[in-house]
């Protein structure tokens, strides 16, 4: 259920932002990633430290809802957790490896599809 809501929110926001700003720059995806990361940090902390929410509802919101809305929020909270737990090098490596390997994977996928 949360995944459906997250996917609908992403779709709706994409349409709205592209109607306003056009498609010449990925403003829709950028706005989804920024808002999703903000919500991930907010909800992650609130449901861990201040609100009494069951583990299944917390997982549904964070993994299902925000996971369907944006996977960048998961990447960001994992990087933040590495930094907070003292793994600065691992956090930096995760950032660079994620960006480089994912971009290379897209390039490889496009190259294979065109063959």
Keywords for this structure?
115 residues, mainly alpha, 2 domains, 5 helices, 86% helix, globular
What does this structure look like?
This protein is mostly helical and 115 residues long. The protein folds into 2 domains: 2-84, no CATH class; 88-115. It is 86% helix and 0% strand. It contains 5 helices and no strands. The chain has helices at residues 2-21, 27-50, 55-69, 72-84, 88-114. Helix 1 (2-21) packs antiparallel against helix 2 (27-50) and helix 2 (27-50) packs antiparallel against helix 3 (55-69). The longest helix is centred in the last third of the chain and has 27 residues, at 88-114. It is globular.
Number of domains: 2
SSE order: HHHHH
3D shape: globular
Q: What is the subunit arrangement here? A: single chain
Q: Can you give the mean pLDDT?
A: 93
Structural class comes to: mainly alpha
Strands, total number: 0
Spans of at least 5 consecutive residues whose pLDDT stays below 50 are none
Helical fraction: over 70%
Distance from first to last alpha carbon: 39 Å
Compact summary:
With 115 residues, this protein is an all-alpha fold.
Task: Present the secondary structure layout.
Layout: H1 2-21, H2 27-50, H3 55-69, H4 72-84, H5 88-114
